[in-house]
Design goal:
434 residues, alpha+beta, 11 helices, 35% helix, elongated, ion transport
């Protein structure tokens, strides 16, 4: 009995893997951003860049050294410029005075979903640090939003885009690479750019097959995970509250917001623009001094166990979902396709003076699709349920009690047998004497 109780209160569990097939499913949300984000042909962007450069005694010319190599100088300047451009975009958005910025058509020159042509109505514009302006396909804005569905799988289905990232030498200021950032995520969430997504190079056609895996952990007493991470309770921490209100809860984002409010803001008196939160009234860090302050805080905590300081603020989610990417690449475009595409009506002016090599350095194709219309569920289940414990204890008690009663009855039966024999023998003796 003791061993049964001990086993039960050790809370053993097993992990099962199941695959569920569907014939029709919601298509995921896809966010993409141009890595070459500083489009100086846009007047608003050019103004912010020039203003930031002059205020910080910078010029377009960067002179690296052995002590501070090119990658360090370029990235340090890029962080400063990206923070200022993003700050300007948010200020304009809040006051409804945002000027004309690059449109979806500036970035995407062909778009198809499941073989049907798509346009700007299928996308939502968002602003993210390091990319400035991004676009999300199939985003769920509210309960009335109709999410696109698909019953198709494979490379011939899904979302197909042809992307223009900007002419080389004209739209690659302060960046050391060219290409596209792309993330697949939940329709009701925004991408966590610090933790998810992939980067695609120019001059390629990328086919990206997506699979979904759902993880379901057992809550207390089996683990310390939290089942409901969609609501905020009265005794929840302020950090957790801010994370939930910023979008879909993840522990990684919660740690970032914990770091922001507990350490970065108190020390630097400004907000790290890399951390996504829509419940923030602090201004972004937009000077070299402020950005260096952020880096010093991060450098300190990158070598520390953040769970020791933010563990109670950020519970583990019991239910999580993960997208996995399977990628394949081909060379794009061909010389033949180049001769055809430069005649396209919306590209004649854009590629008017472009050579085959310059076009190859500024374009790419991407096709995102479901590899299979199925989902994998990795689920924990308890091995011993309460009625199993009751049955086990009850069976053992029944066995022990049965043995005990039998053992007790044996001497009683023996006494009765002896008494019966004695009485019988006595009666026989009396009868014989009579």
């Amino acid at each position: 009995i003791f061993m049964s109780l001990k086993t039960y209160f050790s809370y053993p569990f097993s992990t099962s893997v199941s695959i569920y097939e569907t014939n029709l499913d919601d298509f995921h949300a896809i966010t993409f951003c141009n890595i070459n984000s500083f489009n100086t042909s846009n007047e608003n962007t050019a103004y912010v860049l020039n203003k930031t450069l002059s205020e910080n005694n910078l010029t377009l010319e960067i002179n690296p050294s052995k002590e501070s190599p090119a990658i360090n100088e370029v990235q340090r300047s890029y962080k400063l410029l990206a923070a200022n451009v993003l700050n300007e975009l948010f200020l304009k958005t809040r006051t409804n005075s945002i000027t004309a910025t690059s449109t979806l058509e500036d970035l995407v020159f062909s778009c198809y979903f499941n073989g049907q042509k798509c346009d700007s109505r299928d996308f939502q514009r968002i602003f993210l640090f390091g990319y400035n302006q991004c676009f999300t396909f199939n985003k769920k804005l509210n309960s009335s939003t109709v999410i696109k569905k698909t019953s198709k799988t494979g490379p011939k289905s899904g979302l197909m885009l042809e992307i223009f990232t900007g002419h080389p030498g004209q739209q690659d200021l302060f960046v050391e690479k060219r290409g596209l950032y792309l993330a697949v995520h939940n329709n009701s969430a925004y991408p966590a750019i610090n933790f998810e997504g992939i980067k695609l190079p120019v001059g390629t056609s990328a086919e990206i097959g997506i699979k979904r895996t759902f993880y379901r952990k057992l809550s207390e007493p089996f683990s310390k995970c939290r089942k409901d991470t969609f609501t905020v309770l009265s005794d929840d921490s302020e950090v957790y509250n801010r994370t939930v209100k910023s979008g879909v809860y993840t522990r990684k984002n919660c740690f970032e917001i914990c770091l922001l409010f507990k350490y970065i803001i108190p020390k630097c008196n400004c907000s790290d623009p890399r951390i996504q939160t829509n419940v923030l009234n602090f201004k972004f860090c937009t000077t070299f001094k402020e950005i260096d302050c952020i880096e010093s805080v991060r450098k300190h905590f990158d070598s520390e166990d953040l769970s020791l300081t933010c563990d109670k603020e950020c519970p583990v989610s019991c239910d999580t979902m993960e997208y996995t990417y399977q990628q394949s690449f081909a060379d794009y475009p061909t010389q033949y396709y180049y001769e055809i595409i430069k005649k396209q009506d919306n590209l004649k002016n854009k590629f008017k003076n472009s050579t085959f090599d310059s076009l190859k350095q500024s374009t790419l194709m991407v096709n995102v699709f479901y590899q299979e219309l199925s989902s994998t569920f990795v689920e924990e289940t308890r091995l011993i349920r309460p009625f199993d414990l009751v049955a086990s204890v009850g069976g053992l008690l029944g066995l022990f009690l049965g043995c005990s009663v039998l053992t007790l009855m044996e001497p009683i039966a023996f006494i009765f047998d002896v008494a019966y024999i004695l009485i019988t023998d006595k009666n026989q003796i009396n009868q014989s004497q009579a």
